[in-house]
Specification:
14-stranded antiparallel sheet; mainly beta; 279 residues
Length: 279
C-alpha cells in the first residue's frame, strides 16, 4: 500500500529532524533512522540550570581568526562521540584538517560513511558553511534516500568569546529531494534551518570521556520547510529545544535535544567518549 501524502511529509520532517538533532557542535550524522510510529515519550534534560555568574573567561585555542576558547582549531584535533537519536544508536569521530588563516576542514567518520564539512574563521567567530556536513548532506532513512544542499549561510556557530548571557544564531537555506517508500516520484524540499543559542554559564557535566567544567548553552533548532509530493505542496515547521556543553580548550562534549512532530517524539543525546589535541 502506498504511503499517504501527509505521512510522506511527516517522514521527510522526521528525517531532517534526525539530521538536525545529530548535527550539534559541528559533528553531523550521515545516516539517521526515523519511524512513523508514535507513542514514545520525549526525554528531558534533568540537569540543573547553570547560574549566570559562574562563567569565566576562557583562553583562546588556535591562532588568528581561528582562535576560539571553546573549540581548538588545530591540525589533527580529533573527538570521538557516542550518540542515540530516536530509536538508533551511532558513533563517530570528527577530525580537523586543512587549517587555514580563514577556515578549516572538519571530517566526520561514521560506520562506512565519511562526511566533510568546511568551516570559515571570521572576526565574529567560527562558522559552519554547510548544514549537516558537506556541500550535499546525504540522509538514509529506513528505505529512503535523500540529498540536501545548503546555501546562503548567515551568523556564526561559535562566537570568538562566550560569556553567560550571550546570544547568537545561524541560518542555512536548504533545498533537495528525497525518495519515499511506496511512492514512485521523489519529493522535493525547500526552506531554511536556523539555530539560536543562549549561553547560561558554566557548570559540571558528566560524559563518557570524564567530568568537565563546561559552558552550558541553550539551543533552539527551527526547520521551516515546504515539502512537495506529487505536485502538492505543504508548508511545515519543526522546532526542537535542548542544551549543548562546551569545554574550554577541548570543544563540544555533550548535547541533548528533544522535540515532537505530530505526536512522534524525537530525542537526541550525544556525548564525548575520547579526544586528542596535538601540542
Amino acid at each position: 500500500m502506498k504511503i499517504k501524502r501527509n505521512q510522506a511529509v511527516l517522514f521527510i520532517l522526521l528525517a531532517l529532524a534526525a539530521l538536525l538533532l545529530a548535527a550539534c557542535g559541528g559533528g553531523a550524522t550521515a545516516t539517521a533512522e526515523a519511524t512513523l510510529e508514535s507513542g514514545a515519550e520525549a526525554g528531558t534534560d534533568s540537569g540543573a540550570e547553570a547560574e549566570a555568574d559562574t562563567s569565566v573567561e576562557a583562553p583562546a585555542t588556535g591562532s588568528g581568526l581561528c582562535a576560539n576558547p571553546y573549540y581548538p582549531v588545530i591540525e589533527g584535533v580529533s573527538h570521538n562521540y557516542h550518540g542515540v537519536s530516536t530509536d538508533s544508536e551511532f558513533t563517530f569521530t570528527s577530525t580537523i584538517s586543512g587549517v587555514r588563516e580563514d577556515g578549516f576542514t572538519l571530517t566526520s567518520e561514521f560506520d562506512g560513511v565519511t562526511v566533510t564539512q568546511e568551516w570559515a574563521c571570521t572576526a565574529e567567530g567560527l562558522m559552519a558553511l554547510t548544514y549537516g556536513g558537506g556541500a550535499a548532506a546525504a540522509v538514509s532513512v529506513t528505505g529512503s534516500e535523500a540529498t540536501y544542499e545548503t546555501s546562503d549561510v548567515t551568523g556564526v556557530t561559535l562566537p570568538t568569546s562566550i560569556a553567560a548571557g550571550d546570544a547568537w544564531s545561524q541560518t542555512f537555506v536548504i533545498s533537495g529531494t528525497q525518495t519515499i517508500p511506496g511512492m514512485e516520484q521523489a519529493a522535493t524540499v525547500a526552506g531554511s534551518a536556523s539555530t539560536s543559542y543562549a549561553a547560561l554559564g558554566e557548570e559540571s557535566v558528566d560524559t563518557e570521556a570524564g567530568t568537565f567544567t563546561a559552558m552550558k548553552v541553550a539551543v533552539t533548532h527551527v526547520l521551516d520547510l515546504t515539502v512537495t509530493v506529487n505536485g502538492i505542496s505543504t508548508a511545515s515547521q519543526f522546532t526542537s529545544t535542548g542544551h549543548t556543553w562546551y569545554v574550554a580548550g577541548i570543544g563540544w562534549v555533550k548535547s541533548v535535544d528533544n522535540a515532537e512532530i505530530a505526536g512522534v517524539a524525537i530525542e537526541s543525546a550525544i556525548e564525548l567518549t575520547a579526544y586528542s589535541i596535538p601540542e
